[in-house]
Amino acid sequence: MDPVRDVLIIGGGIAGLSLASELAARRGSGAGIVLAEAEPQLSLHTSGRSAEQLIPSYGPAPVRELTGATVARLLDPRPAPSRPLAWPSRMVLVGSEARLRAEAAPGMRALSRAELVELCPELACSPADAVEAGRLDDTSVRTDAAALVAWHRDRAATAGARLLTGAPVTAAERDGDVWHVAAGVHRLRARQVVVAAGAWADEVAALFGAAPLGLRPLRRTAALVRLAKPLAPDHPMVVAADRGWYYRRAGDGALVSPSEAVPSAPCDAQPVLEDVEDLLARLNTVTSLGATGIERAWTGLRTETPDGVPACGPDPAVPGLVWLAGQSGYGFQTSAAMADAAADVLLDGTVGSWCSPETAAALDPGRFRAGSGAA
Ligand SMILES: Cc1cc2nc3c(=O)[nH]c(=O)nc-3n(C[C@H](O)[C@H](O)[C@H](O)COP(=O)(O)OP(=O)(O)OC[C@H]3O[C@@H](n4cnc5c(N)ncnc54)[C@H](O)[C@@H]3O)c2cc1C
After folding, report:
1. Distance between CA atoms of 312 and 30, rounded to whole angstroms?
2. Would the CB of 196 count as within 6 Å of ligand 1?
């Protein structure tokens, strides 16, 4: 019979893997840690489908704090990876002045239209009322999602954590202070269970008797397209302030997204090609990119909590159950800090003082329960 572990993590996306890796590093051993991933490979769902950008000015205040902490860690990872996990890559928000004032975060640099066009010459042809000006985030970085996932996987596995694939969790019961969990052919036992199951987190937590947080999976598509002329290597990511589209350089072409947020059941989401074709038509009217063909398109589910801030902490009613869910469009940019917060909760019962009390409180899953005053 499988030994009783300290922690079972459900979900092998960036959230679950970052936590397995952080916990194993902190404890100096992964011996008491097991991760169960339903699919035959890690990071197959949303974590395999992102735009790989970490933007410290993007998202509500708690997300921005967690992003700043994550960027600092990923720019200086220990142990050093064989290829970089993150590197500087600017982002510029573009649109009308009114929209920019509403969307821009503190610390962004205001650009006039002339300055913007100097930075992004392909916007010279855009209608002046649609692209009046810009706001530049110099602190934004790119990540390599595959390299980051592999680094966490290796860091956890080398320390002795057990990473199971093809292990869907389908049933759980509690005996004393130990959870007994069916995960494919495995019968696992653990004192604490972390639900890091992305779009499926509410469903998985229900197996443990927890009430749902009200998570909403939302489809978002991205595609690699060809361009008439390649963008410069230091070209910033360009994001419409009305969140209607974004693009960034990808080799000789570009990664583009219509930024849609269409409610979906938890599933293996697939792209709707018309969405990408419509986007190319729109981009080719506001830019001179000359986006001509779709090389590859993919869709993932960004899963939001009701207030848009991720949830990390103990379930208020079910002992031994911890949430790590609702990362929305911020799952990579908050990954290291969210793993830190979850590790703090598992080891010390509360998020540590590296995080502001406001952000620690904002993450509490208990805020969605009746009587919390925040639901
Ligand atoms: C198009 C797009 C672009 C994005 N761009 C960015 C970006 O630039 N920057 C950024 O920070 N974020 C971005 N995101 C968001 C980011 O990708 C997500 O926030 C992040 O991947 C969520 O990670 P996760 O581990 O929570 O979920 P997932 O990667 O979905 O992992 C959850 C895992 O749980 C597993 N699971 C489910 N049920 C069970 C079960 N019963 N038993 C065992 N395992 C189970 C699933 O198989 C899955 O592998 C983007 C998302 C999309 C779709």
Report:
1. 21
2. yes
Averaged pLDDT score across all residues of the chain:
96
Contact 183, 164 (CB under 8 A): yes
Question: Is ligand 1 within 6 A of the CB of residue 89?
Answer: no
pLDDT of residue 373: 57
Give per-residue pLDDT as tens, 30-72. Answer: 999 999 999 999 999 999 999 999 999 999 999 999 999 999 9
CA 75/CA 183 separation, integer angstroms: 35
Q: What tens digit of pLDDT does each residue of 104-125 get?
A: 898 899 999 999 999 999 999 9
pLDDT at 375 over 50: no
What single string gives the DSSP state of each residue in 195-218? E--GGGHHHHHHHTTPPP---EEE
Q: What is the whole-number distance in angstroms between the Cα of residue 333 and the centre of ligand 1?
A: 12
Query: Which atom of ligand 1 is found nearest the CA of 219?
Result: 53
Ligand 1 atom with the smallest distance to the CA of 303 is 19
Question: Which domains does the chain carry?
Answer: 4-52+145-215+306-368 (3.50.50.60), 91-137+217-301 (3.30.9.10)
